[in-house]
C-alpha cells in the first residue's frame, strides 16, 4: 500500500501552519487495512484548523487493528465521535483564544469543518463524509477510470454553503453520508478538499486523463497543477489537500 | 465575468455607508413605537459590522484584512460618523474597526444614532465619489466598492443624480462600483425591495423614481439571493423603498454579499 499527502495553502496565507486543511493515511499492509481522512476547516469559523486537526487525529487515535472509531451507518457511534471531538475542540480553543470581544464571540459560536474519511478492510472500503471534501476511487489501467466519486459526483454540486461538522452541541448533528466501495487490487483511493475535488470533476468532463494525473502525480506535479489552475482561475484559491492510498496489489 | 473576484488580503473589498442623520431621522420608525429611525438604522449597521468582523476573524490566523469600511453621516455636516480612536477617519480597515468600537457592552457599537439638521445627500455622494475614486485606483484588481445610502427623505442641497452617475462610473477590473439606495419610512404600506422596473414604483412618485435611477443592478450572487427570498426580477436594482426595520435588515444582508476568502459569503 503506497501513500502520499500533498498540501498547498491558499496564496495569502502567512504560513503553512495557518492552513485549515488537515489529512492523513494510516496503513497495516499485512492485514490489508487502512484509514484515510481529509478535513477542511471552514475559513469563517473560529480555530477551524484545530477542528480539522482533531477530526484527523481522532480518526487515527486507536490502533488500526482496533474497530474504527466510527462505524458504518451507526448513528450512536457517530454521535459519540462527534461529541468527543466537539468537547476536545471547546477545551483547547478556550485555552488558545484571546480576550478580545470578537475572539470571545467567535469562540461561543464554535467551529465548523468538512471531512471525508475511508476505512479500508481487505477488498471493501467504507466511506463517510460531511460537507464537500471528496473521496475518489480510481482504477488504473490503459485508461485510468473513476469508479466512484463520493459524496459529490459532479463539479456542479459544489456551492458556498455546504453542510458542515459543527462543534456547537446545541445545534442538530449533521449526520454523515455513508457508502461502501468494492475494491480491486491496485485501486487508488484519493481524498481531496473541495477546491481541488471540484476542479478534478470539472476537468474530467473534457479530459479523463486527469484521473491518471491524480494517481501518478508527485509533490512537485501537485504544486505545479495547483499554481497553474489558480492562476487560470479554474481552481479556487483555497487551502488544498490531497491524500492518496494505493490499495493492496497482492491479494 | 464581472463581480467574480474573491475578497482576500491581497484584494480587499470596500463597503461605504452613507447615513442620513438629518432631523427627520429622529422621528419614530414605526407609528406608535418609541424607536427613532436613527436608532433603528444605527442598530442595523452596528449588527452588520459585528457580523463582518466575526466573519473576518475565523480560522486560525486572527483577524484578516478583508475590507475597508466607511461610515459617512450627513445632517448638520457631511463627514465621518466614526468616533473615538477612529474619529474623522473616512475609511478604516476591518482590523482597525474590530479593535476600536466605541463600546462592546452590551454589543459592539461604532455608529451612534443622530438626527439633526438638513439632508445634504448631494454632499455625501460627492464625498463618496472622491473616496471611492481613490480606493478604486489603489485596488484595481479588487471586487468593486459597494456604497449604500440610507435616507428617509430627499436631498435639500440639490439634485444628486449627476454625482450618483459619476459615482457609478467608477470601476475596478472586476466591475463598476455598486451604488445602492434605501429609503426608510414610517408610512403605512408594504416595503418595495429590489424592483427591476419603473412600473413597480409608486405612481407619480418622483423621489422613488430618482432613487431607482441612482441605484445599480445587483450582482449575479446578490440577484440569486434576492430572487430566492424576495422574488426579485432579472434586472433587479439595489433599491428599497418605504423600508421598515425588517426590510432594511434584509436589504443590507443582500446588498453587502460578496464572496470572501475561501468559500463563504458575508
The overall pLDDT average of chain A reads 91
Q: Summarize the helix and strand pattern of chain A as letters.
A: EEEHHHEEEEEEEHHHE
What does the main sheet of chain A amount to?
6 strands, antiparallel
Under CATH at level 1, the class of chain A stands as Alpha Beta
Estimate percent helicity of chain B.
25-40%
- The CATH homologous superfamily of chain A is named PPM-type phosphatase domain
Most extensive contact: A-B, 34 and 26 residues
Q: Which residues of chain A form runs of ≥5 with pLDDT under 50?
A: none
Helix content of chain A: 25-40%
Domains of chain A (count): 1
Q: What would the keywords be for this entry?
A:
heterodimer, A: 251 residues, alpha+beta, Phosphatase 2c, domain 1, six-stranded antiparallel sheet, five-stranded antiparallel sheet, 6 helices, B: 266 residues, eight-stranded mixed sheet, two-stranded antiparallel ribbon, 7 helices
Commentary on this structure:
The complex is a heterodimer of chains A (251) and B (266). With 251 residues, chain A is α+β, with helices and mostly antiparallel strands. Chain A has one domain (2-246): 4-Layer Sandwich (Phosphatase 2c, domain 1). Helices cover 31% and strands 29% of the residues of chain A. Chain A is built from six helices and eleven strands. In chain A, the strands form two sheets. In chain A, strands 2, 3, 4, 5, 8 and 9 form a six-stranded antiparallel beta sheet that branches. In chain A, strands 1-11-10-6-7 form a five-stranded antiparallel beta sheet. In chain A, strand 6 and strand 7 form a beta hairpin. In chain A, helix 1 (48-59) crosses helix 2. The radius of gyration of chain A is 18 Å and the shape is globular. Chain B is α/β, with parallel strands linked by helices. In chain B, 30% of the residues lie in helices and 17% in strands. Chain B has seven helices and ten strands. In chain B, strands 1, 2, 3, 4, 5, 8, 9 and 10 form an eight-stranded mixed beta sheet that branches. Chain B has a two-stranded antiparallel sheet with strand order 6-7. In chain B, strand 6 and strand 7 (175-176) form a beta hairpin. Chain B is globular. Residues 261-266 of chain B have low confidence and may be disordered. Classes of the chains: A alpha+beta (251), B alpha/beta (266).
